[in-house]
Amino acid sequence: MAHNQNTDTALGTNRDFNFTLVTNAPDEIWRLWTTPSTWGAWDKGLNSALMNGEMELGATGSIRPLSGPTSNFEIVSFDPQNAYAFVTKLPMAQLKVERSFNRDRTAFSHRVSFSGPMAFVFARMFGPGFRKALPPTMHALSTLAEGA
Q1: Residue-wise DSSP of the chain
Q2: CB under 8 Å to 71, separation ≥6 — which residues?
Q3: CATH class of segment(s) 11-147
Q4: In which residue ranges of the chain is pLDDT below 50?
Q5: Residue spans per domain, the chain
Q6: Residue 7: what pLDDT?
């Protein structure tokens, strides 16, 4: 994945996009990523998030965006200290968020994708705004982590 820290929109399409930044605080990034109660402090599109139990494969939680209804999510992949992904179900579609480090943990990436029969509708409705919100969200996470 290319490092795109100088762009103001995530790379990709409205249906599948990502953003990558370099960090000197990977352990703190991981701690913030895996503590949903902190997500509202750095995610520019969220009011809050809650996890039901520990962050692990199969765990569930909920996300309350700044606008719109609260959504449930499930952790669908989990590689401790390296990567995880969660899925939010939408009507006839799903939103997948993948967060990962590169091999030497000097860069971290956030990927968002829509899939399913109605993915094109959600990509059209939410993709442009999400793509614009991802860079400031990642920069806020980086600033918070590197200031810790």
Answers
A1: ----TT-SS-EE-SSEEEEEEE-S-HHHHHHHHT-GGGHHHH-TTEEEEEEESSSSTT-EEEEEESSS--EEEEEEEEETTTEEEEEEEETTEEEEEEEEE-TTSSEEEEEEEEESTTHHHHHHHHHHHHHHHHHHHHHHHHHHHHH-
A2: 62, 63, 65, 88, 89
A3: alpha beta
A4: 1-4
A5: 11-147
A6: 67
* Distance from C-alpha of 135 to C-alpha of 35, rounded to nearest angstrom: 20
pTM: 0.92
CB 109 within 8 A of CB 1: yes
Give residue 99's identity as a one-letter amino acid code.
R
